[in-house]
Amino acid sequence: MNRIIFFLILIFILNPIQCLLAQNNKLFWSQKRALSVTDFKALIKNDNSYENALASVGISYSVTFDNSKADIVIKTFFRTDLSWFDKSIQSDWLLQHEQGHFDIAEIFARKLKKEMSNILLPKNNDCNKVVTDMYDKYFNEMKKMQELYDKETDHSRNRNEQLRWLKKIDRLLQQYSYYSTENLDKHKLHTSSNRKQIIQ
């Protein structure tokens, strides 16, 4: 079995050293690079013999306002320092399953990016709440899908279901491909605000 750690980036306030360490241990989602066993760098924490891996994935965002436009950067990441994999298993199915979790996070990052790209942000302090509410909405939806993915695939053991889910995940990635988190320069938010502000 594998377990997933989800990150609500907005909750945690880290000191500069912690931020640097966290940044150095992040892999950002890329179509060109799949996860490998060596990306799981944490020590095995296997208190239950049924567990063979733990993956740590999350979504981060920043919004920078400038006059009537706002640049948005949304990223999907994998924490190498908090993810572990029982390398004695050597299971391609399990590794594909973990990649599926990473891809599901990317799907919801794209959904968030799509919604944020099609709204008029308020010019007052309500802007922070609007953006945070959208983030929370997609984070919670992502968490539910991740849990359903584990349940229906039995953590990669049900191979028919695993194949079905991988096809579903690929289809959703294609559906929202325009909003890939790799495309950092495509999207602008319209806003009535004349303030400069950064949300992270």
Q: What is the 3D form?
A: elongated
Cα(first) to Cα(last) distance is 33 Å
Task: Tell me the helix content.
Answer: 25-40%
State which percent range the strand residues make up: 15-25%
Low-pLDDT sequence parts: 5-21, 188-200
Query: From N to C, what is the helix and strand string?
Result: EHEEEEHEHHEE
Task: Report the total helices.
Answer: 4
Task: Tell me what you see in this structure.
- The structure is a single chain.
- Helix content is 40%, strand content 22%.
- It contains 4 helices and 8 strands, in the order βαββββαβααββ.
- α2 (92-116) packs antiparallel against α3 and α2 (92-116) packs parallel to α4.
- The radius of gyration is 18 Å and the shape is elongated.
- The chain starts with a strand and ends with a strand.
Summarize the structure.
It contains four helices and eight strands. It is an alpha+beta fold and 200 residues long. The model is unreliable at 5-21 and 188-200 (pLDDT under 50).
